[in-house]
Amino acid sequence: MKIRRVALNIFAWTIALIWIVPFVGVFMTTLRPLDELIHGWWNFDSFHPTLENFASAWNHPTAALKKGMVNSLIVAIPGTLIPLMIATMAGYGFSRYRFPLRKSFFILVVITLALPQQTIAIPIFQLMNSLNLIDSYLGLILLHSAWGLPWITFFMRNFFTTIPVAAEEAARIDGANDIVIFFKIILPVALPAIGSACALQFTWVWSDFFLALILIYSPNKLLITQRIPLMRGVYNVDWGLLSAAAIIVMIVPILIYLLLQRYYIKGMVGWSLK
Amino acid sequence: MIKKLTFLVLLVAAMSLATTLTVIGPWAGTEMDKFVPVLNEFTKQTGIDIEYKIYRAEDLVNVLPAQFLSKKAPGDVIFMWANFIREYGKKGHIMPLGNVINSEEYLPGALNAVTVNGELYGSAYTGKVKPGFWYRKSFFSEHGLKVPTSWDEFVGLLEKLKNMPNLNAPIASGNGVGWPLSDVTEHFLATFGGPKLTYDLIEGNILWDSYTVRNGLEKLASLISKGYFGEPTEWTMALQQWWAGDYALYFMGSWITGMVDDPNDLGVFALPGAKGVVFGADYAFVPKYTKYPDEAKRLIAWLCGREGQTVQVSQGGHVATVKGIDLANYPPVDREIAKIIQGVTALPDLDDTIGGEFQTTFWDQLKLLWVSPDRLDDVINVIQEKAPRR
Amino acid sequence: MPRKRGSKYAAFFLLPALIMLAVFVIYPVGRTAYISFFDENGTFVGLKNYSKVLTSREIIDLSGFSRGFPLGALVHNIIWIAIHLPLTIILGLSLAVLLKGVKGGSVIKSIVFLGMVMPMIVGGVMINFMFDRNLGIVNAFLGLFGFQAKSWTVYPDSALLSLIFGSVWLWTGFSVILYSAGLETIPKDYYEAAELDGAGPWKTFTKITIPLLKPITVVVATMTLLWELKIFDIVYVTTAGGPGGASNVMALQMYICAFRALDFNRAAVVAVILTLFTLLVSIPLVRSVRDDKR
Known about the structure:
Chain A is mainly α. Chain A contains twelve helices and no strands. The chains are: A mainly alpha, B alpha/beta, C mainly alpha. Chains in contact: A-B, A-C, B-C.
């Protein structure tokens, strides 16, 4: 029995090793000059670690990640807060009111949750063009907000249905109207769920590539994810640089994950399992 | 009196405002450092101030059409792909330059890529040559190898290299977006089909499954299938490996001279019998919506003329498209390249000139050809589908 | 149980979301479907665009079955599903069960989950890297068994498969987390009772764990299918669909049609076909919402 347990432990950690080795590889490639890598990063005949690749990715002449990081934050923060607000309200509305076509509307929301971004790409491009919002963060933020609504609405509505209405009823008897009740009573209770939705929505907006690709063009406006393919652009393919860039871009969502792990997982599970 | 004075002040102010032009180009970093002196020289000579903005062609292609539609332009002189200049010249968004640029002063063919029905919509600046296969002189002398002067000698050299131990393959294959492979392919096409073939393919006068094209591609495919070309590897990595002796030959553009430790060890040869080499010039145009058409025209004529190009080539890494620049103006490593293109036809880059969906398809299909040379027929068919047709 | 009253409040809570959805999602979807029936001059052409797209070799290339990749973007998506979906479910379930009884199981879970956290565009870079000839760990590993090193993503026969297996590495974290959460909900006494009846570990697994986790499996399968259909970033950054279209997928093909070839009508057709598949997949999701009494 003991042998079996040890074997299982070794097996599990081997799997963990397999999963983490690519990360180690990327780190190694970042830390070492290219000519040390041509026979593999696991080859340690010579080893001269340097942080130069991080610096050059951060200050890259055509695709500086420094700027990309700022740009992505400019998009991701409102792109998280706006839909969070609107969808929390909508989720509450769906959970508390009866009105004609309620179910149909909700099913519509769920269906939009399944859509690929490609479905809306062309009309969005034309719409934004006619609103003069191509190459503007406002357009992208609005789009991200709209795109995040379905799943946050779904998620929050499922959360609100688990909350008893007794407190709300009591407040209503005291004469509070529904809007006051929502902001004073419901929102504080919903904070953990909002936190989960916030962590996920932020990660997804940060990680988005396609919507940015069709809307943002100016070199100095490009978001951080858009700068990654440029790092392997026409005239500068450099594994060290590319790896450094990859690490910088993923560091933000990974930090969020590590700091908010509980909310993150709750969100992921709740979002899909309701 | 006061009225007159105010008017005068306003006039002077207007004039001084009028003389800041915006130039848009793709160069950043060290490339930009080599370009800015050219602009400074123009300001020194004319007193016209210039602001330089960096926009790569890939980004401009998304920005410019929308701006053109609203009769705006982000700059007064803009560097851009030739196919874009032709297309939007035809649509009337670009100022014709026939009266300020004299094509006689340029290398034969240098301005073809920006000419539509005899009207010139842009001008050629300096460029980069894709002269042929590079080798290390030290490597060749160490192994007693000679530069081939005929096709048979070339194949003989490859066979000899292939049998050498410690070599991955005779020729390094640069991967990436796809241009390193297309550069080699264009060189084969121009060598076996003649320089005119490039133009015929651009204009759609000839089919990809015609004998002429197929012949060139078959020559290439036969070399690939014999294993003379290495596996496609990210091209900067391939460069390192080639320099380290994992490969003997590498097809690359002239910018390679700035990427190796010892440029004096570099030698280069074209495929025996090549009568044209690709000369990837940078092209510039003046949008119709510039506020200062006269100054902008003056600037483009100066930049692309002998004076501007002289300043640029002396910075290294560039070759002039305008005739009559003394070789003494080039840094030593570039002189050899500048010499190569005297006496052969300067060809436009095939896929850059056509652009669009053809370019991405062409690149993608060549990646396929490089690993499956037996599928040449498929490759030709797919390319033909996306190729321009008369 | 929702109240019947207060429709003006309902409007306050719901209208912002519904208006935004209508403008930025519903209208564009309808518009995409609409232009898929028109040509570039705005003339109605019926299903002509559809027949053109469905017979183009970019979407379905039957000759590929005798010749080798490419088989067309749609077929590639199907292959992606055929390989990736079972692996996601099997790996997710078995890892969740395994990690439950292992020291540091939650740490291992976190490691496996890292692939889910990073942007897909970065995931693509990592996949490219894993399968590279010189830098890739895959070659180093296979080299131990005497395989010849190669860059797996540059060959038509292995490009798509490399990306698929790479995407397993990225996505398994999702199913592990979901199955782990599901395992928590199975009451311990079920297993105790089974043990008393003399059922072995395999039997408990097939008779208790799998049936009780069925709702989770439905969710995992639905979400995974949607993810597989929407694959874009990974392919864009690694092979751009090549070589010769051998790793092309529908989402990328739509982008190429729309923003490279500037053929919006053809792109709309590709988008509509892709959308139909995702709608088909989301049926269980819709059904569970419809039957939800809350």
